[in-house]
Structure formats: structure tokens, C-alpha cells
């Protein structure tokens, strides 16, 4: 192995603990591949400079298949055997109480895509890239303003920690927008026949069909079933990965105006100086060339987290997790992919470990996903916080309703002081 910096033989390891196979593959494997592009760029430039040394980066993946036992096994391996300094996760069902205890015990810096995972008992768990499910309010708010004729909605989602917090958020968003929720259906993740579900939702004649945060295969099946039944209203979803395939299976006309939350990175609005993602168009082009047909909601998210982590490592002049976390949160402000954001979340998650700012509202126009606006999550929260908290509490999803460790919110300050 070559030496870097001052004659030091150095490799810095980053772990990816996620369902790289199975039904959530579309929200994990593309994130790994995006991380691979990012790591290769850093290594091609000579590595990551930390103080006076340069480090080559190595990605180590562990496939959880979204099974709690495998997630725990993977967390132990990455932390105790591989010696990683950062772990990237989807979160949700993979973040069991046992995994949380392990993270806290080893004070490992872990980035989740679900801020609803956050709580004071795991102070080194952060959500610096995605603010699921809170950003979903921006899509509903945009629809309310642009299409006031939409008065009713029907909603469905799978029963897991991706779907349920999103249900609470969409309930709150519809209530705040004055849109009546006329039907709601929670289905098991093993569901394969979505016709009866769409029949049930359409029986209420809603103006909007909302697929919540359903997995890519679910979104495709639900949309196709709605097309078969002649639905003529608006479609709304957290994600719409591989929408060209849905257009092929339905029609350009049917998919027109489908609203979701994740842009393609060749969108012109990402090049107007608003964003903090280096050359998004070039990243998108390389990703699509190397991994054709797999661009998804998470293709850029792990890379975005890694960019924030890199900046913090360089400011801290160390890669030790607590020092890096402190550097990330200096001043309470951070460069989010979609603009400047602030570390936030204590009122909803018990700890300010989510980087929250603006989020794009995306709609399919003439067969192409295009950003319609950047909606402010903070502005919505300032007006409607009580509604969201009400719905989160009604579903036992607030951080203080979970069966986690009974650590206090002062844990972070205490452990940080020990590190210094």
C-alpha cells in the first residue's frame, strides 16, 4: 500500500449498513453507488487531508435486508471488526434498541435518512441529509396553493417505520391545508395485490391519491392499478423512483402533475446557486452512465452526507466521531444539499440532530421530473407544529414514546466534554 502525507500508511473506513437487497434495495444500493462515486473522486485527488496527513477512503458495506438481527450483526462487525469512523444507514426498522445501545456504547457517528429515528438516548445519531418525513408537508402545501380545487385525499402506506411516521406527517399536512382525508389504509410490507387497496381508496372518490412513503415496487403497483381503474385526480407520493418506467406502463398524460419530493440532478434549478452539492448535473450524468436505470431518491443522499462529514473532519483535524460531530454543528448552521440549513429537532425528536432547511417540490411535466419550488420546512413548522405533534403522538411516534434507553438530553454535552 502506498503512503500518503508525511510517510504515513493510512486508510479511513466508512461503513454502509443498509438493505442492499430485498424490497428496500432501491433506497439503499443507489446510495451506496453514489457514495462509491464520491469516494473514488476523493481518492483520485489524493485522498482526504486530515491535519498533516492524507487518507485513502474505503467503503465497507453490510447488507441488512431490512432484518433487525442482520442490522445488529452488521453494526457489530463494522464498529468492532472493521473499525469504521462513520456509518451510513437508511434507519427505520434497522435501528433497533440493540443497535442503538451499540452505537451509544461505542460513541459511533451514524447518519440516518430518517429524522424520526432521532432521540436523546443516541446523541451521535444524526440526520444531515434527508429530513423524512417532514419535507412531505411542502408537497401538500404547494398543491393547496396551486390547485385550490383539490379538496379531498386518500392515503395508504406499509406498516413500518418508513410508512407510519409519514402517515402522521401527511395527516398533519392535509389538515393544515384544509384537505379532507376521506380514506386511509395501512397494509403489511408483504402485500403483493394492490388492486383491492386502490379500490378501497377510490371508492371515496378522492381528488388526491397519496402513496405516502411506499417502497418503489409499491408505488409502481399502486400507480398502475389506479391507471387501470381510470383515476383522473392528482397523484402524490414521497418518492417516484424510476418514473420513466411508470410512464411507459401508463401514459405521459396519466403521470402529468404527479407530485413527489426528489429531483433528478440534471434539473436546471439545482444550478442556480441555491444548492450545496458540487456539480449535480455531472454527478447525475456519471451515475446514470455507470448504473443505468437505478437513479433513486437516495442516489445523492449518502454522498451529500459524506461531503458534510468531510468538511467537518477537516475543520476538526481528526476523524474521531464526537469531535467530528461537534465540528458539524458549530454555530447551529450547516450546508445542506438544497441550501443553508440549521440543526433542529428538539421539539419533535428531543435533540437538535436534524439538518433542516428548504426542500424541493417536484412534479412530472411533459414526462420529466422538474422542481416547482423549494418549500420551507421551518416556515410550515412555525405555523402548524401543534398539528404535527398531535398526529405523531396519536401514533406513539414521538421520541419520548419509544422504548429506547432512558438517557437524558444532557448526554451529548457530557460525552462531548469527556472527549475534549
Model description:
The chain starts with 10 loop residues before the first strand and ends with a helix. Helix content is 39%, strand content 20%. A hairpin with a 2-residue loop joins strand 12 (333-336) and strand 13. Strands 2-3-1-4-5-6 form a six-stranded mixed β-sheet. It is built from 15 helices and 16 strands. The longest helix is centred in the C-terminal third of the chain and has 18 residues, at 377-394. With 420 residues, it is an alpha/beta fold.
Provide tags for this entry.
single chain; 39% helix; 420 residues; disordered N terminus; globular; four-stranded parallel beta sheet; 15 helices; 16 strands; alpha/beta; six-stranded mixed beta sheet
Short description:
The protein has 420 residues and is α/β, with parallel strands linked by helices. The protein is built from 15 helices and 16 strands.
Bin the helical content: 25-40%
Mean pLDDT, to the nearest integer, reads 91
Radius of gyration: 21 Å
> Which stretches are low in confidence, meaning pLDDT under 50 for 5 or more residues running?
1-8, 404-420
CA(first)-CA(last) distance: 33 Å
Structural class: alpha/beta
Alpha plus pi helix count: 15
Strand content: 15-25%
Topology:
Elements: E1 11-18, H1 29-44, E2 48-50, E3 53-63, H2 68-82, E4 87-89, H3 97-106, E5 110-111, E6 125-126, H4 136-146, E7 152-158, H5 163-177, E8 180-187, H6 195-202, E9 208-210, H7 216-228, E10 234-236, H8 243-249, H9 252-255, E11 259-260, H10 280-290, H11 301-316, H12 321-328, E12 333-336, E13 339-344, H13 346-349, E14 354-356, E15 358-365, E16 368-376, H14 377-394, H15 411-419
Parallel strand pairs: 1-3, 1-4, 4-5, 5-6, 7-8, 7-9, 9-10
Antiparallel strand pairs: 2-3, 11-15, 12-13, 13-14, 15-16
Amino acid at each position: 500500500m502506498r503512503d500518503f502525507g508525511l510517510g504515513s500508511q493510512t486508510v479511513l473506513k466508512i461503513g454502509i449498513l443498509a438493505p442492499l437487497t430485498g424490497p428496500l434495495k432501491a433506497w439503499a444500493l443507489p446510495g451506496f453507488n453514489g457514495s462509491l462515486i464520491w469516494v473514488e473522486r476523493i481518492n483520485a485527488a489524493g485522498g482526504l487531508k486530515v491535519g498533516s496527513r492524507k487518507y485513502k477512503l474505503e467503503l465497507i458495506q453490510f447488507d441488512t435486508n431490512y432484518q433487525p438481527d442482520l442490522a445488529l450483526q452488521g453494526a457489530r462487525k463494522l464498529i468492532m471488526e472493521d473499525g469504521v469512523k462513520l456509518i451510513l444507514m437508511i434507519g427505520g426498522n434497522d435501528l433497533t434498541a440493540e443497535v442503538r445501545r451499540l452505537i451509544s456504547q461505542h460513541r459511533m457517528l451514524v447518519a440516518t435518512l430518517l429524522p424520526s429515528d432521532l432521540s436523546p438516548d443516541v446523541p451521535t445519531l444524526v440526520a444531515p441529509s434527508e429530513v423524512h418525513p417532514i419535507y412531505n408537508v411542502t408537497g401538500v402545501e404547494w398543491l393547496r396553493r396551486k390547485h385550490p380545487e383539490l379538496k379531498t385525499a386518500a392515503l395508504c402506506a406499509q406498516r413500518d417505520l418508513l410508512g407510519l411516521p409519514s402517515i402522521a406527517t401527511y395527516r398533519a399536512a392535509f389538515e393544515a391545508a384544509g384537505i379532507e382525508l376521506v380514506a386511509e389504509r395501512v397494509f403489511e410490507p408483504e402485500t403483493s395485490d394492490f388492486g383491492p387497496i386502490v379500490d378501497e381508496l377510490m371508492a371515496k372518490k378522492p381528488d388526491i391519491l397519496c402513496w405516502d412513503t411506499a417502497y418503489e415496487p409499491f408505488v409502481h403497483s399502486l400507480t398502475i392499478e389506479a391507471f387501470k381503474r381510470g383515476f383522473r385526480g392528482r397523484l402524490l407520493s414521497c418518492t417516484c423512483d424510476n418514473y420513466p418506467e411508470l410512464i411507459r406502463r401508463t401514459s405521459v398524460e396519466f403521470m402529468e402533475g404527479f407530485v413527489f419530493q426528489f429531483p433528478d440532478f440534471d434539473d436546471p434549478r439545482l444550478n442556480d446557486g441555491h444548492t450545496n452539492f458540487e456539480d449535480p448535473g455531472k454527478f447525475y450524468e456519471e451515475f446514470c452512465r455507470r448504473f443505468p436505470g437505478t437513479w433513486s431518491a437516495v442516489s445523492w443522499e449518502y454522498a451529500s452526507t459524506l461531503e458534510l462529514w468531510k468538511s467537518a473532519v477537516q475543520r476538526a483535524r481528526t476523524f474521531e466521531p464526537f469531535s467530528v460531530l461537534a465540528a458539524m454543528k458549530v454555530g447551529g448552521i450547516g450546508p445542506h444539499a438544497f441550501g443553508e440549513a440549521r440543526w433542529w429537532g428538539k421539539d419533535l425528536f428531543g435533540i437538535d440532530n436534524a439538518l433542516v432547511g428548504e426542500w424541493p417540490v417536484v412534479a412530472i411535466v411533459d414526462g420529466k421530473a422538474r422542481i416547482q419550488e423549494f418549500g420551507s420546512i421551518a416556515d410550515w413548522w412555525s405555523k402548524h407544529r401543534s398539528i404535527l405533534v398531535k398526529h405523531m403522538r396519536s401514533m406513539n411516534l414521538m421520541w419520548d414514546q419509544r422504548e429506547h434507553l432512558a438517557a437524558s438530553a444532557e448526554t451529548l454535552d457530557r460525552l462531548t466534554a469527556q472527549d475534549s
